[in-house]
Amino acid sequence: MDSRLRANRRNFLKGAALASAPFLAGVASARTSVSRTEQEKTGKDDRTQWLAIVERVSQPVLEAISQQKLRVTMPVETAKGLSQERAQSTHLEAVGRLLAGLAPWLDAEPGNDPAEEKLRSRYREWARLAIRYGTDPQSPDALNFGDNQQPLVDAAFLALAIVRAPSELWEKLDSATKENLVRALVETRKIQPGFNNWLLFSAMIEAFFCKYGRPWDTVRIDYALRQHEEWYKGDGLYGDGPDFHWDYYNSFVIQPMLLSVLDAVSTVTHRWAFLNNVVTARARRYAAIQERLISPEGTFPPIGRSLAYRFGALQHLGEMAWRRDLPEGVSPAQVRAAMTAVMKRMIGAPGTFDEHGWLTIGFAGHQLSIGENYISTGSLYLCSAAWLPLGLDATDEFWSAPPQPWTAKKAWSGVDIPADHAIAD
């Protein structure tokens, strides 16, 4: 290389370094700023943000049905040409799914925040009215529990909600509402579940009957539990039926309902107690996987079907935090930080809500093509399933510990984290 070329190269490199210096300094400054901001945050701040999301998502549904106006006010967005068909079941979807996520918070002991307690008191009343009017055949908002296949799914989510909130959503119901609820759930027995995760919907309803002292069918529970044992694929993951699907149904349905069914029947029989330890060990492993799937930016991979349930995909991680049974090496504070990042990112995406505050179909904003043929407006309220940790008191470590970076955030910032390994079972 001649002297002139060497000089030009030196000048170019020098100029590039000088030009990049302000940018690099800005990046360093931004990192310092973010770090300081995170250090200043508290669990109370995060809980306030979660409750703001709860209110924004839940109010249109619960306020409408508390006034028996859900059917006349809730839009029915679907794939093209399916609005009439999906309108048969979408209202039960909205109510059952929303209450399944709200239930632990509704049933929790009172805290010390007057604003939160005022909100919780209102939502408890609305939730009971939702069950009352939704199961009253004379109400204009009477929900469909048996005219097609879909009600089996969402009756199971409603049953799950009441199993999760025995005090507020069962004991405090009046006797007529209890009878209407039982009648409505019995109606779903005529629906034959698919040979996949749907077996757990039938099992969940029977587990409800078991827990609350009503006649229950042991065969539906036994069949669902034993088939899922056969469908276990390894390393904390079950197949959705005989085949493995790389989606979030282990979190949307399978693992939370396995845990809840086993819990509900445990006070009546020990018939399935042999499954408790193995199901819990798998649940911990899958929670570890879910936490690792959350990127440093607060995203998770858009893989598989039903992505329109948004952060409901994190139900299982939230469940294990609520149960205080997170895997070793995964702290409650890092789960809180990771889930907060995801929810804020998704809820803030433009187009997530329509002009009247109802959720729209999409994963990050309004993306109609994300919605499969079975998706409608009511389906979207399964996003509430991520809120289970709100059932923990504000003084619990999940909310009170200082924020911590989650696994992917530590790994991508160069922290020396332990190696990850599959479980042997």
Structure in words:
It is a single chain. With 425 residues, this protein is mainly α. The protein has one domain: Alpha/alpha barrel (Glycosyltransferase), CATH 1.50.10. The chain has 17 helices and two strands. It has helices at residues 3-40, 43-66, 70-73, 83-86, 90-107, 114-135, 151-164, 166-171, 175-187, 199-211, 218-230, 249-266, 276-292, 315-322, 332-347, 397-400, 407-412, and strands at residues 232-234, 237-238. A two-stranded antiparallel ribbon has the order 1-2. Strand 1 (232-234) and strand 2 (237-238) form a beta hairpin. Helix 2 (43-66) packs parallel to helix 6 and helix 12 runs parallel beside helix 14 (315-322). It is globular and about 60 Å long. The N and C termini lie far apart (63 Å).
In short:
It is built from 17 helices and two strands. The chain has helices spanning 3-40, 43-66, 70-73, 83-86, 90-107, 114-135, 151-164, 166-171, 175-187, 199-211, 218-230, 249-266, 276-292, 315-322, 332-347, 397-400, 407-412, and strands spanning 232-234, 237-238. The chain starts with a helix and ends in a 13-residue tail after the last helix.
